[in-house]
Design brief:
Blueprint: H1 8-18, H2 36-51, E1 55-58, E2 64-68, E3 78-82, H3 96-112, E4 120-124, H4 138-143, H5 149-154, H6 163-169, E5 185-191, H7 196-199, E6 204-210, E7 212-221, E8 225-226, H8 238-255, E9 261-263, E10 267-270, E11 276-277, E12 280-289, H9 292-313, E13 316-325, E14 328-329, H10 332-345, E15 349-354, H11 359-363, E16 369-374, H12 390-408
Parallel strand pairs: 3-4, 3-5, 5-16, 6-15
Antiparallel strand pairs: 1-2, 2-4, 6-14, 6-16, 7-12, 7-13, 8-11, 9-12, 10-12
Helix pairs in contact: 1-3, 1-12, 3-12, 8-9, 10-12
The structure holds (2S)-amino(hydroxy)ethanoic acid and manganese (II) ion (MN) (3 copies).
Length: 410
């Protein structure tokens, strides 16, 4: 097999260049899905792929597919990719490394005039983060048939803007029917977003699966009243109820430690005035665990805690499950290609299950899929200080290239 070597500096330069699109003062990126900033990076991505001779297709929920022909057009493409949207206080590498690492693989092949047997397909999945439009992994979820296009179009951000209107406004409502851009396997490169690889001084995570994830939306309604003249026993304080449920979410996760995690990350208080007793609170709950049966128990505890706490205070309540992504195991043949690609590159590795959600979790439902992790500093992610090194990014892209070649020639 020809020894193809990626260009680390070119990859790093592209990471730093695109980080300027939505770059923040603290060195992170705020590039929410389907905003004009997302359009800018999508336009850049399209032009880079077209410069390599790829054809770029866009589907009806904005997923982008850049196809590089192979020797045999009868073979199903091998997909590589991730996402270009970020958290509001995201880092430079979450998602972006997977897309630009894939671009570097294509650039390397282009430089050397190397032709794979199967076509190569570089994918940018829409709305992986789920920060603006819940649930997460919406684009790959529609592609995999987990959600339909109408569901995606109906999703609203917290300002009441619909996904369907946002995608039209940036001109990325493509023609391709979701799921029609077929491929035979997918490899997703991503930073680990956790502390294990760095702590164990391993360069590569051979990812065997993704843990289960569930999201809920809770609304508590009490009564707005004066903070000065309302006695404590006459209050129905929605934020007090929220505080007690936040505490209970933490306890439920700790009751199922060490693997369970539980978080209340988004809280909207009304009227949010310092001398008005909060009458309404909207908040979200994020539960995760590698075992769906445990997630079921955690969910049961949450569903009994909310009414109990609301009744204690006299609050009205509503709770909706808005996302349920079961635990996923990746494809052994794809995993083996990553293992061989890692050995070929000479890196130490360890097997691991992903704590974070990824598009690969949905794609694994319809095609052989796996992931490659590289370390990030302190395991920190979803934070503007997210950091990794040129060497770690290059290692990930090299293993991605090697794994694709292994799979292409199996
Ligand atoms: O929520 C997640 O795990 C992913 O980063 N969207
Ligand atoms: Mn990501
Ligand atoms: Mn993320
Ligand atoms: Mn991902």
């Amino acid at each position: 097999m020809q020894n193809l070597t990626i260009n680390p500096q070119r990859l790093w330069d592209s990471l730093m260049d695109t980080a300027k699109i939505g770059g923040t003062e603290k060195g992170g990126i705020c590039r929410l899905t389907l905003t004009d900033l997302d359009r800018q990076v999508r336009d850049w991505f399209r032009s880079q792929c077209e410069a390599l001779g790829c054809t770029v297709a866009v589907d009806q929920v904005g997923n982008m597919f850049a196809t590089r022909p192979g020797k045999r057009s009868d073979l199903s493409p091998i997909a590589i990719g991730s996402h270009l949207d970020t958290q509001p206080t995201g880092g430079k590498f979450d998602g972006v490394l997977g897309v630009l690492g894939g671009l570097e693989v294509m650039r390397t092949m282009h430089d050397l005039g190397y032709e794979t047997n199967a076509p190569l397909m570089l994918v940018n999945w829409t709305n992986e983060e789920g920060s603006r439009f819940a649930p997460a992994m919406l684009g790959s979820g529609v592609y995999a048939g987990v959600f339909d296009r109408a569901f995606a179009d109906s999703r609203e951000d917290r300002q009441g803007v619909k996904f369907g209107d946002a995608i039209e406004s940036i001109g990325y409502r493509g023609d391709a029917v979701p799921g029609s851009m077929k491929f035979g396997a997918m490899f997703e490169l991503h930073i680990e977003q956790g502390p294990i690889l760095e702590a164990e001084r391993k360069m590569v995570g051979v990812v065997t699966g993704v843990q289960g994830m569930r999201w809920y939306e809770v609304e508590l309604t009490g009564r707005e009243a004066h903070t000065g003249s309302t006695p404590m026993n006459l209050r129905t304080n929605a934020l007090l109820g929220t505080a007690r449920i936040i505490e209970r979410v933490d306890q439920i996760a700790l009751e199922h430690s060490p693997s369970a995690v539980g978080t209340v990350g988004l809280v909207e208080v009304k009227p949010n005035s310092r001398n008005v007793i909060p009458g309404h609170v909207f908040f979200t709950v994020d539960f995760r665990h590698p075992d769906d049966a445990v997630l079921e128990v955690m969910e049961g505890k949450l569903m009994s805690a909310i009414p109990a706490i609301a009744n204690e205070i006299g609050l009205e309540f509503s709770v909706k499950k808005v996302w349920d992504s079961p635990a996923v195991r990746f494809d052994p043949e794809c995993i083996s290609a990553v293992r061989k690609g890692t050995e070929k590159a000479g890196f130490l590795s360890r097997d691991m299950v992903s704590g974070a959600g990824h598009d690969a979790a949905y794609i694994a439902r319809i095609a052989p899929t796996t992931m490659i992790f590289v370390p990030c500093e302190g395991g920190l992610s979803h934070n503007e200080a997210e950091s990794t090194t040129l060497e770690e990014c290059a290692a990930g892209a090299q293993v991605l290239l090697n794994a694709v070649l292994e799979y292409d020639q199996r």
